[in-house]
Each structure stands twice: as C-alpha cells, then as structure tokens.
Design a protein that fits this description.
InterPro entries: MMADHC (IPR019362)
Order of helices and strands: EHEHEEEH
Pfam family, one: MMADHC
Helix content: 25-40%
Structural class: alpha+beta
Largest sheet: 3 strands, antiparallel
Protein name: Methylmalonic aciduria and homocystinuria type D protein
Distance between the termini: 21 Å
Organism: Stenomitos frigidus ULC18
Length: about 120
C-alpha cells in the first residue's frame, strides 16, 4: 500500500472555492502519479489499483460494493487523528494540520519495488 499525503495551500476543514480548487488540483496530481506507478507495476506482472480520493472507487478495476476511505487508512496505519466537517473526514497531520490531501494506491508488489518505481518516476 502506498499512502500519498500532499500538503495543501489552505485548511480543508471549511468548504470554500479555494479549498475545492486545491482538492481538485491535488486529486489530479495524485491520479497522474498513481496511473504512472500502476502502469509500471502492471508491466512487471503485479496487480495495482488506485482509488479516486473523491469517491473511494477503484479506477483500474471494476468497483465492488465497498469504497476505500483514504482518511480511515491514514488514521489506522499512521495513527493520525481525524475530524469531520460537512460529512467529510479530514486528516489532522502533525505538521500540516488540516491542510493535507490523502490518496491511496494498493498493489501486490513488494514495498521495495513500489518504492523503486516511485523513485524512477520522480527522477
């Protein structure tokens, strides 16, 4: 599992045009990165799925009945606190506060391989 946490330019607790624009920008950035990583993982014969942070639905596989909750994953795996606003859960990052956008990629590949692919894409 690859958890991607992106810092935001604004607090995401309050709904505003600026916050919504930030979420859209960071969602697009994750989708671009996630697709690039997933394609490389798939080429190596492993399974990979990225999940739309907005809906929780997988983008490279058929959706099932459940939706992935990025905030719940961050809370369960990293122990970060969360809060709710307008029906949405928000991560409370230890450094960035409520100005953080979480996203998730899941793969059958070993973590070291995912890390290597991430480094290659980043270069």
């Amino acid at each position: 599992m690859l958890i991607v946490l992106q810092p935001c330019d604004c607090d995401l607790l309050k709904r505003s045009p600026i916050a919504e624009a930030q979420k859209d920008k960071l969602r697009r950035r994750f989708l671009k990165l996630g697709y690039a990583i997933a394609v490389q993982i798939n080429r190596l014969g492993y399974a990979a799925a990225i999940f739309d942070p907005r809906t929780g639905l997988p983008l490279l596989a058929r959706p099932g009945k459940l939706r992935l909750d990025d905030v719940a994953i961050v809370q369960a795996t990293l122990g970060y606190r969360t809060t709710c606003s307008h029906g949405c859960s928000i991560v409370l990052h230890p450094t960035w506060g409520r100005a953080v956008y979480p996203s998730t990629l899941v793969s059958s590949a070993e973590p070291a391989l995912v890390e290597q692919i991430l480094r290659e894409i980043a270069e």
